[in-house]
Specification:
The structure holds two protein chains of two kinds.
Chain A: E1 7-11, H1 15-26, E2 30-35, E3 51-52, H2 64-74, H3 81-100, E4 115-117, E5 124-127, H4 133-150, E6 154-158, E7 160-167, E8 173-180, E9 186-190, E10 193-196, H5 217-224, E11 229-230, E12 235-242, E13 249-250, H6 254-257, E14 261-265, E15 282-283, H7 285-289, H8 299-311, E16 322-325, H9 331-349, E17 358-367, E18 370-371, E19 384-386, H10 403-425, H11 436-453, H12 460-474, H13 481-498, H14 513-536, H15 554-557, E20 559-564, E21 571-576
Parallel strand pairs in A: 1-2, 1-10, 2-6, 10-19
Antiparallel strand pairs in A: 3-5, 4-5, 7-8, 8-9, 11-18, 11-20, 12-13, 12-17, 14-15, 14-16, 16-17, 20-21
Chain B: E1 16-23, E2 32-39, H1 46-55, E3 83-86, E4 89-92, H2 98-105, E5 109-113, E6 120-122, E7 125-126, H3 129-137, H4 158-168, H5 175-179, H6 191-201, H7 210-215, H8 231-235, H9 242-259
Parallel strand pairs in B: 1-5
Antiparallel strand pairs in B: 1-2, 3-4, 3-5, 6-7
Classes of the chains: A alpha+beta, B alpha+beta.
Chain lengths: 596, 264
């Protein structure tokens, strides 16, 4: 019999997870919210530039239909279009809702919401709160969820990491197992429905713009337990990041949205101070090649151009870096519109971008691929839902800037009622007493025990570094089949060597060694999905670029890649893309009406 | 407009530098110190130095030890999690550059300690859940009729939006509480929560239930415990005008106490 006291567990407390938690609590149901960090510290805080929605307050004739067109065109037609339409239709009301929640969005003279331009569109469609929009939106949801927490509707488990799903004999999801990251105690969470909202897997590439929590580990366990993973090979490399020893820090697209220009000296290795290089001796290569969109071409294109310019030896000082120049804009304007991100650059590099052109290079940023979901955010496992970066549904082969925040919230808003509806109707049967939770808990305890007792000669952090280097070198901007094959062999080798790691920490209280080992294993699994998915796709589309197959090939590859786990290797299949709303056309950003 | 001044840089870096780390196995264990020696490289921050140690946790005396444990996430000084006390100053470890620290101290050693005002979980990790409880206490949210579509929010001047934005950047890192001489145990709620109350009381809708927030600040642990040391505003990594928030909230509480009965 269906039950009235629903139990819904949400894994991940970023924008998508909190959006879902808020909706479920508002509908009167209880939520267990599991997050590796206090939810207010989730990776959504890193989103900088803004959130897209065709509110059309600038007299430009913008509309959700144009937002839909820009999104599917920008995504090189790999996204199923109906959910994209639903998202772009919902986007204005999402922005208004955040406005009502008190997000300090930047305003116009009249006190209305202000909008800026972002890549891949000719409209001012991006609402923003300074240059820390993700932080502001996350805080707004965090606040609303805190209110529900005080009313007993949301139970937070912060500092807990999901290890696996609890599936019954019919592959129906009945809950999950999570680990307290201090005591390493495991707990079984009974749930009628589980929503995964754990974000992207950037750490597979070692250094990326992602937070250190973005391992993709929870998603990988779902995949290993039978969830389908879609379009894994589509990894966005952001054109402008600040290289660092520990991570690649994002330099927001809003820097270009507010007029930032990308250039290199026309003379290779020109050692002059950039300010001393006259206009005529600078090569603004994006503006030259793409007169309509200029510096605001979509990310995949900007990334490849910057990468290529450096590969050919034209980078600043002959190195892998180009200038991103804001110095022609008044310092006061920059402080007001971009203060937060300029501070980041100054803090970590030591130069003030208001006066000195920034040096930037592409960095792994976002996964368009993720758990396969239908148009209601349901995965193929009954009772398991996914929302946010960890699902594949919206961005196709390339994500447009400022579409991630809106897709996270949209995913949460769709997943929440879908999960409630499912939970209302699912029959619990005897799943609370038949021992499946205990059995899964024991299985996970055994895995922990074997990791702890292992005494081998391998260092897990060095293995992680090696995986990251291979993935970054071979599975990012430019891809060759022989190198993809070699990478997969390397990943298998690393999986073998993983079995010989020693955790190296005799103190198990609050140890990071055991969680990291589990994450690493899961990353190694997902890395193969990304690599082999790329190997199998012999075309170039969006972020996936193969010089040996330089064109998009709709006849053979206008289809979604689906990976399913098997012990030997991921098993791939394909399904058609729903292009019922916007007919696929060639992507060409070099022509079109010039931007205002 | 202020003129642009170029930052002073470490001209003559040492080949090696030392990381002195305060260790503790768990909350009940004794504090001990361990020193690690690392090869200097340009562009290191405290986090990447700690990552080096973690890969090979051997002290300067050659003793194999457990890897030091610390919190980190965004590494862009926006999540607040990696806060610790570095050379005696509370700050985020991601944005603490080794070059700058060596330049400031003039020697080749950097000292890392956990924050002292919160329970010390292990090594450099502390438990700041108290700070999130403060946010409950001051009702740090806007009351909505519902999350369904009710159109846009109130029109707000950009000036007010910018003022609120400054408060809204608080990442709950705890620097202000660590530096505050009055903040200890549960005797004083501290500047973080007061500034968040201010953030919502400044909003046209938030204003409607400002009494609830002010009430949260009028108890024994309330705003009157502020000793006006002004340390908070000095250490806030987001440059939040914390002392202004305290002043303005105090004013609101006084007005409320004087005239609040008129509304009853």
């Amino acid at each position: 019999m269906a039950s009235t006291n629903l139990k819904i567990a949400i894994v991940g407390g970023g924008l998508a997870g909190l959006a879902a938690a808020m909706k479920i609590a508002e509908a009167g149901h209880e939520v267990d919210l599991i997050s590796v960090v206090p939810v207010k510290r989730s990776h959504s805080v890193c989103a900088q530039g803004g959130i897209n929605g065709a509110v059309n307050t600038k007299g430009e004739g913008d509309s959700p239909a144009k937002h839909l067109d820009d999104t599917v065109y920008g995504g090189d037609f790999l996204a199923n279009q109906p959910p994209v339409k639903r998202m772009t239709d919902m986007a204005p009301e999402i922005i208004y809702l955040f406005d009502r929640m008190g997000v300090p969005f930047s305003r116009t003279k009249e006190g209305l919401l202000d909008f800026r331009r972002f890549g891949g569109t000719l409209h001012h469609r991006t609402a923003f709160a300074g240059a820390s929009t993700g932080q502001q939106l996350l805080y707004a949801l965090d606040e609303q969820v805190r209110k529900w927490e005080t009313q007993g509707k949301v139970n937070k488990y912060e500092g807990w990491e999901m290890l696996s799903l609890v599936l019954d004999d019919h592959q129906v999801c009945r809950g999950l197992i999570a680990m307290d990251l201090r005591s390493l105690e495991l707990k079984a969470f009974q749930a009628d429905a589980v929503i995964i909202a754990t974000g992207g897997p950037g750490l597979i590439f070692g250094k990326s713009t992602n937070s250190m929590t973005c391992t993709g580990s929870a998603v990988s366990t779902c995949y290993q337990q039978g969830a389908r993973y879609a379009n894994g090979e589509f990894i966005q490399v952001h054109p402008t990041s600040i290289p660092g020893e520990d991570k690649l820090r994002l330099m927001s697209e809003s820097a270009r949205g507010e007029g930032g220009r990308v250039w290199v000296p026309k003379i290779d290795g020109d050692s002059r101070d950039p300010k001393d290089i006259p206009e005529g001796e600078r090569w603004y290569f994006l503006e030259e090649k793409y007169p309509a969109y200029g510096n605001l071409v979509p990310r995949d294109i900007a990334t490849r151009e910057i990468f290529q310019v450096c590969l050919e030896g034209h980078g600043v000082a002959g190195e892998n870096q180009v200038y991103l120049d804001l110095t022609h804009i008044p310092a006061e304007t920059l402080t007001r519109k971009l203060g937060a991100i300029l501070e980041i650059y100054e803090m970590f590099v030591g130069d003030d971008p208001r006066y000195v052109p920034m040096r930037i290079f592409p960095g792994v940023h976002y996964s368009m691929g993720g758990l396969w979901v239908d148009f209601e955010q349901r995965t193929n496992i009954p009772g398991l839902f996914a929302a946010g970066e960890c699902d594949y549904s919206i961005h196709g082969a390339n994500r447009l800037g400022a579409n991630s925040l809106v897709s996270c919230v949209y995913g949460g808003f769709v997943a929440a009622p879908a999960a409630v509806e499912y939970a209302k109707n699912v029959d619990r049967g005897n799943t609370e007493s038949n021992g499946i939770h205990d059995a899964e808990l024991r299985r996970q305890q055994e895995i922990n025990a074997s990791i702890i007792s292992n005494e081998g000669d391998e260092n897990q952090y060095k293995l992680h570094e090696e995986m990251g280097k291979w993935m970054t070198d071979n599975v990012t901007v430019v891809r060759y089949n022989d190198r993809l094959k070699a990478t997969d062999e390397k990943l298998l080798e690393l999986q073998n060597r993983f079995k010989r790691i020693s955790i190296n920490d005799s103190n198990l209280w609050a140890t990071q060694a055991v969680p990291h080992a589990r994450q690493l294993w899961n990353m190694l699994q997902l890395a193969r999905v990304i690599t082999l998915g790329a190997l199998n796709r012999n075309e170039s589309r969006g972020a996936h670029y193969k010089p040996d197959f330089p064109d998009r090939d709709d006849d053979n590859y206008l289809k979604t890649t689906i990976a399913e786990y098997s012990e030997e290797a991921p098993v791939f299949s394909y399904e058609p893309v729903d292009v019922s709303l916007v007919e696929p056309r060639k992507r060409d950003y070099s022509k079109g009406k010039a931007a205002k | 407009m202020t003129a642009h001044v170029e930052k002073k840089r470490l001209e003559d870096p040492p080949a090696k530098f030392k990381l002195r780390i305060q260790r503790r196995d768990n909350e009940d264990a004794q504090v001990r110190w361990e020193t690690f020696e690392l090869a200097y490289r340009r562009n290191l921050n405290v986090i990447s130095a700690l990552m080096d140690v973690r890969k090979n946790p051997v002290t300067i005396e050659g003793k194999q030890t457990t890897p030091p444990v610390w919190d980190m996430s965004c590494l862009e000084q926006v999540c607040g999690i990696c806060t610790m006390v570095i050379d005696g100053r509370v700050r985020q470890s991601c944005s603490a550059l080794i070059d700058d620290l060596l330049l400031e101290s003039g020697n080749d050693s950097i000292t890392l300690q956990p924050m002292s005002k919160f329970p010390n979980v292990r090594d450099l990790v502390v438990d700041r859940s108290r700070m999130f409880e403060h946010l409950q206490q001051v009702h740090a949210w806007i009351e909505l009729d519902g999350t369904y579509d009710l159109g846009p929010g109130p029109q707000i001047s950009n000036e007010t939006a910018q003022e609120r934005y400054a408060y809204s950047r608080c990442m709950t890192c705890g620097c202000c509480l660590e530096a505050c001489p009055q903040y200890d145990d549960d005797e004083y709620i501290g500047p973080q929560a007061i500034a968040q109350a201010r953030l919502f009381n400044m909003h046209p809708v938030g204003k409607m239930d400002s009494d609830e927030r002010l009430n949260g600040l009028m108890g024994n642990d309330g705003i009157t415990n502020c000793g006006n040391a002004q340390n908070c505003v000095q250490v806030c990594p987001m440059s939040i005008p914390l002392t202004r928030a305290i002043y303005e909230t105090n004013r609101d509480i006084t007005v409320n106490a004087l005239f609040g009965w008129l509304r009853k």
